[in-house]
Amino acid sequence: MQRLRIRPDRLLVSEIFESVQGEGPSVGRPSTFLRLGLCNLACDWCDTPYTWDAARYELTAELTPTAVHAVAARVASAANLVITGGEPLLQQEAIEALLAAYDGRVEVETAGTLAPSEGLLRRVAQWNVSPKLGSSGNPRVKRRVDAALAALARAEQACFKFVVADADDLQEADALVTEHRLDPSRVWLTPEGVEGETVLERSRWLAGACIERGYNLGMRLHVLLWGDARGV
Predict the structure, then answer these.
(1) What is the mean pLDDT of residues 33-37?
(2) Phi first, then psi: what are they for 133, rounded to 5°?
(3) In what order do the strands lie in the sheet with 64-67?
(4) What does the pLDDT look like over 157-167, one tens digit per residue?
């Protein structure tokens, strides 16, 4: 496990691939995805457990410690770079070093449990913040870090994506929107699911909630196109 320690000059990379953004306000946008390893949560329905779950995966085989300059070279031509995980902000020092070498547009996907530095907060064009709700299986004390959420809520370039599986999740999402005074136009409700029919069924239900509240309906476009395939 020594190879997997977090360092400011290296990134623990799971995969780098080209696709279209599947969720949030940039849905459908061609993007380069930089998926990083490790996470401070353990969602029951996580669709990328190979980035963090050492009980099921050999992480030293799944994750590659890669020098920041080497990652920068691989993503240099990206028109839109999406940094995802895992939980990318566990490696934010190395991300800051990466973005010092990459001058394109950047989105960061985070669960909102870690506050980014002020420099990183300003540098990123779009924060896709996805606070985890009850259906994730994470204890509330771990999935809910209000100071980090408040810092992200103050950022104009932050949107909030709630992955909803049931009515309890919707109620919790509403409470977070109220508590952090989020403009409904910055909120996306996304159906939980890794099968197309599940996504569509829950989307039909969530559409009514979005209309009633003024939220946005977030589709899982990548699931509709490719199911639970990896690297797309």
Answers:
(1) 98
(2) -105, -175
(3) 64-67, 10-20, 30-36, 80-84, 105-110, 126-129, 158-164, 187-191, 216-217
(4) 999 999 999 99
Q: Which among 57, 83, 61 has a CA at the least distance from the CA of 71?
A: 83
10-20/30-36 β-pairing:
antiparallel
- Cα–Cα distance between 161 and 155 in angstroms, integer? 15
Query: Which CATH number does 2-161 carry?
Result: 3.20.20.70
Q: How far apart are the first and last CA of the chain?
A: 28
Residue 104 burial by Cβ neighbours in a 10 Å radius (0-12, 13-18, 19+) = middle
Output helix, strand, coil percentages for the chain, rounded to the nearest 5. 40, 20, 35
Phi then psi for 16, rounded to 5 degrees? -130, 125
| 7 torsion bin: left (phi>0), alpha (psi -120 to 50), beta (else) | beta
Mean of all residue pLDDT scores within the chain: 93
Going by the DSSP 8-state scheme, the letter that residue 7 receives in this structure is: B
- Which of 79, 91, 99, 86 lies closest to 21 in space, CA to CA? 79
* pLDDT for res 3: 64
Residue 58 CB partners (closer than 8 Å, separation 6+): none
What does the domain layout of the chain look like in residue ranges?
Answer: 2-161
The answer for residues whose C-beta is within 8 angstroms of residue 16's C-beta and 6 or more apart is 32, 33, 34, 35, 71, 74, 75
Q: Specify the pTM.
A: 0.93
- Interior angle at CA 183, CA 163 and CA 81, nearest 5: 60
Structure tokens at 119: 């420099």
The mean pLDDT value for 110-137 works out to 97
